[in-house]
Amino acid sequence: MQRILLDTDTGVDDALAIILALNTPEMKVEAITTVSGNVYVDFCTRNVMLTLNAMDLGEYPIIAQGERQPLVKPLVTAAHVHGSDGLGDVTKLHGPDGSRSYPDPELRLAAASAVDLIIDLACQHPNDLVLVALGPLTNIAKAMDKNPNQMRNIKEIVLMGGAFETYGNVTTTAEFNIFVDPHAAQRVLDFGVPITLVPLDVTHRVMLKSERLKAECGVRSDRLAKFLRDATRVSMAYHHQREGFDGIYIHDALPIGLIARPDLFDTADAFVQVETSGQLTQGMTIADLRQGRPALKTNARVCVGVNAEGFIEHFFDCILST
Length: 322
Ligand code: BDR
Ligand code: CA
What we know:
Bound molecules: beta-D-ribofuranose, calcium ion
Number of strands: 12
Oligomer: single chain
Shape: globular
Radius of gyration: 18 Å
Largest sheet: 8 strands, mixed
């Protein structure tokens, strides 16, 4: 059983990742921490609660709210992809009786900040806690700066981020999570705990097609199935218009899948660096991933391949198993 802490800027694919993590039998979600990214952190925290409320959970993980702003840059958000509330505008939906389908949830938050909770859990579970980062790396970089000794107890960081042999999704060269806080990303890469990056190179190969979603949960009337349909609608429309397919990328679900099902992924060791200041290339991730040229110095593992169909099977097997 792998203990994980999810650090998330809860947008639509983050919500799917949370649902997958909590339904992965080999995983124990110790805590969820939030960070500004797709939307401001307050909305991200609300979205965590709305996502958890859509599931039948006996026990909730500890939740702590994190940083509002990246280390150096002003925040850039992605509400155009995820809806103005970050969760496909579910908070604007109303039922037939006029009441809100997803009213503001009660926020049951830890007293500690995300940064302090990350440090505390690293200390409580030495070499046993995997940090899964699904948003900008601001909280994690700050935790490293605040208490480097405790943070060295982290077993591994698995993060969704980067674009190597493909275009970026926020600029031509940069992937969103790294672009929003490139300074934090470089800090985390420099820190020296094992890191695995799951970049756009693989997440763009895994599409959750609208037809498949319909087939899996179109006929179900339970809360989770309704949430999956409602929360993905705005993002589906965005992808249809912008990416030209009927479905969505589910970037943040992939790191969760990688931990439970490493057999579905190929990885390569590499030396990864982040462009923190380039005018046209800020947030770009750089590594030589050419096969047959092993890096002389490495600081990370990069996912370079995925069994997309196998991943989608795994995703639905886990989340709709009940
Ligand atoms: C990443 O950016 C965010 O919009 C998604 O939630 C994901 O974490 C993909 O580039
Ligand atoms: Ca995210």
